[in-house]
Amino acid sequence: MKKIIVVSVVLAGLLLTLPETGSAIPAFARKYGFNCNMCHTAFTRLNDFGQRFRQHGYQIPGQEGHEKNVFATPFPLAVRTSMGLVVGGNDSTTTSSFNINGLDVLAAGVLHKNISFLMIYTPRLDEPAGDYTGAADGANPGQLGALEAANVVFSNLIPEKLNIRVGRFEPAYHPLSSKRTYYLASPYEIYAYGSDGNRFGFDDNQLGIEATGDFRAGFHYAAGVVNGNGANPDNNKYKDLYLAMHQVFGRGEGQSAGQRVGVFGYYGWQPTVFDSLTGPMGENEGGGNKPFYRLGGEVSLNWRTLNLRALLMQGVDDQALNPIDTADDYEFTGGIIELDWAGLYNNRLIASAMVNWVNPPCGDDDKQVLAYSAVLRYNLGDWTAVNVALHAEYLHREVGQDNPFKDDIVALMLDFAL
Amino acid sequence: MIAPPDNPQTSAKILLGKKLYFDTRLSADNSVSCATCHDPALGWSDAGPTSKGIKSQLGGRRAPPVSNAAYAPLQFWDGRAPSLEEQAKGPIVNPIEMGNTHQVMINTLSGIKGYEDEFKTVFGSSPITLDQVAQAIAAYERTVVTTDSPFDRYVRGDQTALTCVEKKGLEIFNGKGHCTACHWGGYFSDGRFHNLGVAPAPGANPDEGRYAVTKNPADMGAFKTPTVRDAAKRAPFMHNGTEKDLMAVIRLYDRGGGPDGSNLDPLMVPLGLSQKEMTALEAFMKRATVSLNPGVADEKPVPASEFPE
């Protein structure tokens, strides 16, 4: 059976007439008959080919218009979840549990030449819940039902140089995608950081519109206008703006080949008063809207299957959003350094180490974060359009400056998508 | 293999086409036949690095393989011919290939009674026309197709058809090697045109490739994806024969293409293949794609005694 699937490789072309490929979305691999490594260094990280496929609106670069659309193929549906044993402990307690880490339902494909779509639905899961209290507990679901992504991409409005994405999407300003990280238990700490008065999440998918483009000389840009309020209607009347640019030296996209250097910035608004006018869809005009911004730079260096990525970021929230010192802006810095290596045939084995840190402003030292993580992932088999990874992860995290709270997590998981 | 409606396959036409394919009298000086550059013993190509025509003139490109060319939507490295029939007419009048004119070639064949009779039998009319010559050759070429190889047997369920390392090579071929992005389907080719950054041969001028046909700047230096079937018999590789063997080709892809990055295809990215992965890939291409069909693998030239007189 495995052989037949693997071999559909080439034979899929016989049946489909034209191929298409896939991102962390096995439905693409099924469509083309490719195996996952066509687009991924290893599930879940995009390689350069996969990055270009995504940039071209889920079309094989250069093949736009020749691809079968979603109406001519089985509907491109995929699911992803992970499950396994998670052991956590700190100075005083230790817990262990077999857990399921939610469920993603993904669909994506080409609607028409240079018009494609992506949808990610996370169904509501009433159990397991972190504070689950019984069968009737509907208030604390293990996963909220959400349309995590729903967007349409208009590609090649100016060939390669202008693509427009509309809807809810993962903004292209953060070069280290938390959606496609190898880590299951270790977040990119700086992304979730901010003053208590700022609800913005740096790696939240956002509602809005985004323009992206690539130039053959290796220059890439992304610019967008978004609500800045995740899946929700905007909580203020101003729109948030962002711009990211990077240059790749050498061949590749800086994902798995080529050397990439980039900068990014996000400028947004958050309300400080919450009794302002509400619109028909739940949007709010906000009150006392105050600005905040994030600025940063990143590098991604590649040598063979070794990838070193680093991101430095500064965040500044207006003083009105700073509950600990309303006379001063809330300024913090932080970063991520991640080293990944792919080995064995077809990159079946992934080893990764990561350091996260966040330095809060004076007066908020208790929120200082320092975290070390390591991952080993082994992808079983070579199954076209199926990913099953054995995942072992360790996280050591310290929060606070003096006498920090320390906790450790060991996760032994099975991560799969199909 | 589906033939075009205006050129249905018949046994007599295929046999006539085979004789024409191997007959040097189609060339101006009776020295070059189709098989000279598309030699069955050399994977239906030639020794290269580029092809040699009449008076030992060298062309700028290698002869693309005739085997399985019937699957290609367009013919020649630059796709300038829309069918096998149109392709067959080209080399006859190319001054550095057969160096003939169509009329002289027709006159030559018309002067050979055996051919005159065979054409009349096959096409039911006379005199011999250029289209009839092309149709007969194309009909023969449509029989030179692979349906049996270790890869095909493996696909059909024979687990022993591929060795362990060849299976690993197939896995790389379809994954990390990105080969199937272009070399897909039963023909192992998308039939489209890609610029791999291949440099001109020493002393040669840059080749415009597909651009010469379309005048589309995106096609500059792009050439048709060749089939991988029987690739191992066709070294050296690339349109100009600048890569001496399969491992050299694999290394070129592993680097993300050749040295000319001026119009590199967006599919070309460095691959990060290990030596073991490259070796497996080479093993897959070397043996797993070898044609086992006698008409492809062991086709013999028409004996001199069997040519029409």
SSE topology sketch:
The complex is a heterodimer of chains A (418) and B (309).
Chain A: H1 2-16, H2 26-32, E1 40-42, E2 45-46, H3 48-55, E3 77-90, E4 94-100, E5 104-112, E6 115-122, E7 146-158, E8 162-169, E9 206-214, E10 219-226, E11 240-249, E12 259-270, E13 290-303, E14 306-317, E15 330-343, E16 349-359, E17 369-379, E18 387-399, E19 405-417
Antiparallel strand pairs in A: 1-2, 3-4, 3-5, 3-19, 5-6, 6-7, 7-8, 8-9, 9-10, 10-11, 11-12, 12-13, 13-14, 14-15, 15-16, 16-17, 17-18, 18-19
Chain B: H1 11-22, H2 34-37, H3 84-93, H4 102-110, H5 113-123, H6 130-141, H7 150-155, H8 164-173, E1 193-194, H9 211-214, E2 223-224, H10 246-254, H11 275-288, H12 294-297
Helix pairs in contact in B: 1-6, 3-6, 8-11, 10-11
What does this structure look like?
The complex is a heterodimer of chains A (418) and B (309). Chain A has 418 residues and is mainly β. Chain A has a single domain (2-417), classed as Porin (Beta Barrel), CATH 2.40.160.10. Chain A is 7% helix and 46% strand. Chain A contains three helices and 19 strands. In chain A, strands 3-5-6-7-8-9-10-11-12-13-14-15-16-17-18-19 form a 16-stranded antiparallel barrel. In chain A, a hairpin with a 5-residue loop joins strand 18 and strand 19 (405-417). The longest helix of chain A is centred in the first third of the chain and has 15 residues, at 2-16. Chain A starts with a helix and ends with a strand. Residues 1-23 of chain A have low confidence and may be disordered. With 309 residues, chain B is mainly α. Chain B has two domains: 11-145 and 297-306, Cytochrome Bc1 Complex, Chain D, domain 2; 150-288, Cytochrome c-like domain (Cytochrome Bc1 Complex, Chain D, domain 2). Chain B has helices at residues 11-22, 34-37, 84-93, 102-110, 113-123, 130-141, 150-155, 164-173, 211-214, 246-254, 275-288, 294-297, and strands at residues 193-194, 223-224. Chain B has a two-stranded antiparallel ribbon with strand order 1-2. The mean pLDDT of chain B is 94.
